[in-house]
Amino acid sequence: MAHPPVNTGEGPLDKEPSHKGPLGIFAGQGPLPLTVARAARDEGREVFIIALKGETDPSVAEFPHRWVKWGELAKTLNFYKDNKVHDLVLVGPVARPSLSDIRPDWMAIKFLPRLIKLLRQGDDGLLSGLVNYMEDEHGLRIVPAEAVNTNLLAPAGLLTNRKLSEQDEADLARAIEVVETMGRLDIGQGAVVCRGIAIALEASEGTDNMLLRVATLDPALRGSTADRAGLLLKLPKPEQDRRVDLPTIGATTIENAAAAGLAGVVVQEGGALIVDLENTVHRANKLGLFVLSLAKSE
Known about the structure:
The chain is α/β, with parallel strands linked by helices. The chain has 2 domains: 23-142, Rossmann fold, CATH 3.40.50.20; 151-294, LpxI C-terminal catalytic domain (Cytidine Deaminase, domain 2, 3-Layer(aba) Sandwich). It is built from 9 helices and 13 strands. It has helices at 32-42, 73-82, 106-119, 123-138, 145-148, 166-184, 207-214, 251-259, 277-287, and strands at residues 23-27, 47-52, 65-68, 87-91, 141-142, 157-158, 190-194, 197-201, 231-234, 248-249, 264-268, 273-274, 290-294. A 6-stranded mixed beta sheet has the order 6-13-11-9-7-8, sandwiched between helices. Strands 3-2-1-4-5 form a 5-stranded parallel beta sheet, with helices on both faces.
């Protein structure tokens, strides 16, 4: 069955890494920073990681790293400079800090007026502003995670044993309308639709917390492990800067979707990262969910 066309979400041009010299990583939450770091190491690159206290998984300690708090900008940039880092990957979700969370050093104080303006914008505006600052003011080049590890990009097609039902197809059509509207408003990248009703929209809480919230809803509004219904759709925003914050799923996403009673998860070919594709598909098959990657619209 043909699926509705979706926006490709291709914003500013991607920048390929030089594949030479050290790679810097600013690591957020989850397993993705370590996945990218190991891929770079396998290609013979030195890797230097900035880890954010309270956010980054401690497992990044297998690489040269430095722990920082929000606001320690000089410490961060000097670490990259001292290790001759030119290419930098920003990878892994982070909780948007409030101004009270930031303890600015001298460099961050100089940047603070600009940061205050950026924090008033949506995620796209905030991230684009940070990328421009790192590149224009400090000579770093921000590259996408998938340019370091091409195996992360979602391939096209149905990836699992379970297929979509007619109701799933109808939910998908509705979800595309919802998520594309959210993207134009710079609200979020994902939504859950069940039996034609949008029961959850992703905002600053992140996908996993949204799915945990869905699992607490009245069973009449969602599916169950015995009678799965509804799906999670994640799409890049229309003006997505593909170097940062591309939609991401993995085995944890599948497990949380399963616990919420959903029938499946949908992303877009080349428009999402899948952490450990083989394990993600294995978990989906074991739990009885579908994973679909929509082909890009022409």
